[in-house]
Amino acid sequence: MNLDDIRYFYFVADKKSFSRAATALRTNISSVSRRVKNLEEALGATLLIRHSRGVELTSEGAAVFASAKKIYDESQILGSTIGELTRQSDKVIRIVVDDEFLLTWLLPKLPDFYRSFPEYLIEIVDQQMLDAEHSRLPDAYISLRKSQNLNLIEKQIVRSGFHFLISDRLLADLEIDTEHQPLAVRKSPIIVFPKESLLPQRQAFSELSLSIDVSRQCVLEVTKISEMYVAVKEGLGIGILPSWIRDDGLSDLGGLSAKFAREIDVFLSYPEHLRGAPRLEAIKTFFATYFTADPDCAKKVVHKPKPLPIKICSLFSETGFMSPWESPLNAVAKMAVDGINERGGLLGRNVEIHQPDPASKWDNYFECTKASIANDCKYFFGCWTSAARKKVMPALAPSKGILFYPLHFEGNEFSDDVVYLNAPPTKSVIPALDYARKRHPENARVITIGSDYVWPRTINETISSYLKASGMDGSRITSRYYPLGFVEFEDELRAITQAYNREPILLCISLVGPSLRSFLSQFAVLDLELDQIQMIAFDATDLDTFEMDCSSLEGLITCWGYFQQAANNDVNDDLVDSWSKHPVLASLPITDPAISTLNAISLWSKAVEIAQSDNLAAVRSALREARAMCPSNGHPIGLGSSGNIIDRKSVVATLASDGRFYPVTEILMA
After folding, report:
1. How many Cβ atoms from other residues are within 10 Å of residue 442's Cβ?
2. What are phi and psi of 480, to 5 degrees?
3. Does the reported pTM lie above 0.85?
4. Taking phi first (over 0 means left), then psi (-120 to 50 degrees means alpha), and beta for anything else, what does residue 18 get?
5. CA 231, 235, 239, 245 torsion: positive or negative?
6. What is the mean pLDDT of residues 17-29?
7. Is 291 exposed, middle or buried (CB count within 10 Å of its CB: 0-12, 13-18, 19+)?
């Protein structure tokens, strides 16, 4: 039994209509119907009866609906709780701290931490209470001793010597010049740690006790560093303390300290999965900046640490069969980020772009996304195929990140975790199909040829349904699919030639990557006239054809929102100038997927500025207001009134003999 099937059934039963359920679920009626049928088959019972007014529950359906409602309600609460906890936990640093270090250094320095890292909150966890708590484990442990936990990564983060301190008030009472330190020791009472003390300072004090008559001068025995500090400050005597303790009311008898080479270490321990986590890096940066054992530290200016960068991920393949199409988009994303950083970054922070290589393997996109999220990347720009996109989406849920997807998509998916920067079939497939049919005999046989994955199969179903609705006999529509990356099309082209000799053909191509380029190259050498065979290649861009002899392919139709040959505005002129100077991109044409990638990063950066935060929920909300200047026409674009789909026009274009696409006169629907 599938939980998604239960969810779909719940919506149908709750809305009492398949169509209203489809609207609520942002899908189509056939998908909802199929899901309900799956559930009925799994349960071996009829749950719904359809009638003219909607649907009616059977007795079995009523029982299942009651349970489904509980499941749905609980899942909503759970999803909301997990999402909120995830958002909060990213900014709360839970630490267990050695009490002595907490009182003598960390607490006095917390104001400095919050000035440097205002986005984080420190939560001190009591080690004694860990077993009894039902909350998440600490992010880090700060201790004066090495950890015995082999499951933690341990680093020595600071090292300190010791110094001998006396209060200025006591020094004045004794009327001793600090330059005569041995005299100060002889005349001053001593505060000591007992020999049985387990504190790391014990050995150092034992060495000190060899040179002075402790029994005569000792006024107080203490067991804690914090007790020693208070006693010295109150003027009870000289005390030995770690060099990290500084106080304007105390004088350092530094000459005595030099006699003892003993040092004390402070260790940071943390779980493996937090390696490189931003909240852990904040702690490390804080210590590196503010901790010093230098006796003159109070005289030094402590510089505010450089803010941590905002991390994003460019998720396009650098290797594998899709790399000729995807790797240029990595270069485009890097160029956009470099531009942001040259202008001062975002919120005073640099943007750091990570570019893992999925190597053109769908499962790798999921793994790369998970690894990037663990490294505190929340914003992803990438994927060429819908199959890759659908692998990424589970890694983003619930509320762990957003994918900005720059290619055409099939339109029956609406996710809060995806921003769709390009056109669904209503803005790409249908307009291109309508344009082709106006120029070709209505009785032409339709052959659809696609790569075998979700996007081609979905748009070919859309084409078939659209043509049948317009009156075409379904027997005149043929669909064939080939594995992604397939390039041997001799048999297919032979079949097309035979069909061409009998009747007009409308050829709809949804091949991608090397399959599309190979098909067009092999088709170009056939002795076929395009007045008898009209061809649409829905995914074709100038990148597929600009180095090809296209004299036999003139008239090939495609549909995108941007064509370099037609863009005439200042925004595009600036882009062309930057593009022409780029070491990788200068030799390539500018295509719509590149523009969509630039638009995605521009919209995201605007949203961060509007939100004044890189917080995922805040940026997600600000995206509604964000606008970016699009090189297509030089005008601002943003998300539409519903869903996460960009509000942008599409244009039908045809291929010329020079291998470039030129728009036809009409501009299509927004």
Report:
1. 11
2. -135, 145
3. no
4. alpha
5. positive
6. 81
7. middle
